[in-house]
Inverse folding.
């Protein structure tokens, strides 16, 4: 389980993963969401290839404006290599 400290007007990541995240990109808090005072969490199931790259992201919940920002960041994440594909559960929290 990984928890990263929140930043002002940004996002907090929480990952319940089997594999260790070796490189992450913090999601950009969408300016429209910020101006509309939209906050919340985005939960996603991430299919990670054996080489540690993201193959597929399935959003399991969250506001659509925040979900797109979460997906954009998660596509850049890298996990440690493994013998097979794995599903990783990630929750990104967007707060002001």
């Amino acid at each position: 389980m990984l928890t990263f400290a929140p930043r002002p007007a940004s996002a907090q990541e929480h990952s319940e993963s089997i594999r260790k995240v070796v490189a992450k990109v913090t999601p950009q808090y969408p300016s429209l969401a910020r101006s509309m005072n939209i906050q919340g969490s985005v939960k996603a199931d991430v299919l990670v290839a054996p080489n540690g790259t993201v193959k597929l992201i399935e959003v399991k919940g969250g506001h659509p404006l925040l979900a797109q920002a979460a997906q954009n960041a998660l596509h850049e994440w890298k996990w440690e290599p493994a013998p097979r594909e794995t599903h990783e559960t990630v929750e990104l929290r967007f707060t002001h």
Summary: Residues 64-74 form the longest helix (11 residues). Strands lie at 2-3, 10-16, 21-23, 40-48, 54-61, 78-79, 86-95.
